[in-house]
């Protein structure tokens, strides 16, 4: 943990870790990986749809606040009982994640857990993560 934000590289047994530019063009690929993992873990079709939409909303929320030229880091863990994701990026030091609006409501509705972790402000910004489980 660093200032309340989990470093994904230290996350326990996350079988899939992705690091891409924090750009909206990356979201379809991230969503497709989440869908594939959920299908392989035998989630129902409705649960797979919920997971895809939740991952999409979380990624778009993080990307929306990310610093220019930041990377988006994503860790997925999927088993027969639980899907878990951590999606994070660097935000400007004086910025926080917006946790309101329709997208945020959808994210809370589709998941069994949604948590925001914000690190301490540093010279290069603040690490912000959304953790979700289904």
From TrEMBL:
Name this protein carries in UniProt: Serine/threonine-protein kinase RsbW
One Gene Ontology term of the molecular function aspect: kinase activity
Keywords from the UniProt entry: Kinase, Transferase
InterPro entries listed in its UniProt record: HATPase_C_sf (IPR036890)
């Amino acid at each position: 943990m660093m200032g309340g934000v989990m470093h994904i590289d230290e996350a326990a047994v996350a079988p899939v870790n992705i690091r891409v530019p924090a750009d909206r063009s990356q979201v379809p690929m991230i969503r497709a990986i989440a869908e594939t993992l959920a299908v392989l873990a035998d989630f129902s079709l409705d649960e797979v749809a919920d997971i895809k939409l939740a991952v999409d909303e979380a990624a778009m929320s993080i990307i929306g606040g990310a610093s220019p030229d930041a990377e988006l880091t994503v860790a997925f863990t999927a088993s027969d009982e639980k899907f878990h994701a951590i999606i994070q990026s660097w935000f400007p030091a004086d910025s926080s994640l917006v946790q309101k609006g329709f997208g945020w409501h959808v994210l809370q509705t589709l998941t069994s857990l949604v948590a925001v972790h914000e690190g301490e402000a540093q010279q290069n910004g603040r690490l912000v993560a959304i953790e979700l489980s289904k």
